[in-house]
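Protein: Cytochrome P450
Species: Hericium alpestre
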Amino acid sequence: MAFTNHLHFEMSWKALFDVVFVVLGLLFVKQLISSHRRRARPLGPKGWPIIGNLLDMPNEKQHLTFCHWADQWGGIIYLKILGQPMIIINSLQAANDMLEKKSNLYSDRPLLEMAGEIVGFKDTLALSPYGERWRESRRMMHRIMGSRTNLEKFHPVEELETRRFLKCVLDQPDSAHLHNHLCSTAGALILGITHGYCTKEKDDPFIDLADETLINFSDLTVPGAFLVDIFPILRYVPDWFPGTAWKQDAAKFRETLHRAVDLPHEYVKQQLAAGIATTSFTSMYLEDEKMSNEKEKLLKWLTASIVGGGADTTVSATYSFFLLMTLHPEIQKKGQAEIDAVVGKDRLPSLNDRFSLPYIEAIMKEVMRWEPIGPTGLAHRLMEDDIQDRYLIPSGSIVVTNIWKFLHDEKVYKNPFKFHPERFMATKTHTPEPDPRMAFGWGRRICPGMQMAEASMFIWFALSVFNISKAVENGIVITPKVDYTDTTIRHPKPFKCSITPRLEQAIALIRSVELSQD
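Structure follows.
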């Protein structure tokens, strides 16, 4: 009996000790969490009660305001807008540490109520939430377009559409038509790769649909453009309520988006059924495997994403190229001299010439650096608390990178506001400056079509057959103004330039391509 009591006494003490140990452990964990939570947020502009920093956010040229804030508060800036934490990254080192090294935490996208939920762009690759659907889309894209070798099968399409562009410019060299030529050709190029579709030279329905969708996306994703993005509850306001015209607009945007997704996909299925389909991203998947309805839905949204992302970015970069060549004829002449020396004057450059033309490659890099397509890119969303440079970055934060600042940092790029392709050329006395491909994004959210975009830009930039110069009107030389749209994907505003064939054989080369298509 005594032994039993003694044993019971020892077990009671052991149980009590276990309980105390667990409680102390929980208190320790709580203290750690509490200490973690008490860490200082990054510095930033002081907000107002309730609305926070809502009034501090600029309506235009946000990247320039963020640069100004960096001078005051440093490389990582903290804002809070109506309770939503936001981080502005002005430090390239911080961007690499956070978005590249810790991409498992920073690969989500913020929910855009208007563009994503109401119109439906959340199903595109660019705005898709981080998860299995997004990962499967990336795997599908990598399989077909994940390397330069994989893309070689589409080189004939890229070169053909570039030649068609040359013909359009030759027939209508007025700079007023240039942007339309670029949009049509970029759309034709991407639709040829994704759907094997050959466009009409004018008024093509798929091109018009893609252009309309791209304009909608660019307008819808501008931060703060729609009140419903700030107050999501507004989506439930009845349609008859005053001030809800945006809901009718949203319905039109959604209908346009779904037509842009569905119609090209159905075209490929019809071509396959008739046995006349051209090899394309879509046909390769539909032929190779029996697809579930869910997988096929994923495929058509993925290819629509490629059409949207690839066309608009290529147009933006190439239009910038024409602007910069107008302003810098000495750089244009140097590029043409390299092409003449390597390619000659008896044929047009091809993608096989790319790595034999380092100065053209340097021009391409400098265009990307000098005026990045998206100065702040697409925002990321942090999925759990993080510590960076001793600061707490709270879970759910919207994270914006000031790409424009990174690419104009005097500590990284010498004379950053000068257009100077030589900065990327290696010589005995010069080490190339850092590659500007950060313009394509970071980590798991880096642009998956980067290889295709670079190939398209190269073949368009290797315009050996034209001279691009300042326009002359009534004897007055017109110097174009460097001014860009303030949209998610920025384009130069329309400008005047003169586009003329370099040599008589240039016209013959372009016309020979025209004849080969007939």
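Remarks: The chain has one domain: 40-512.
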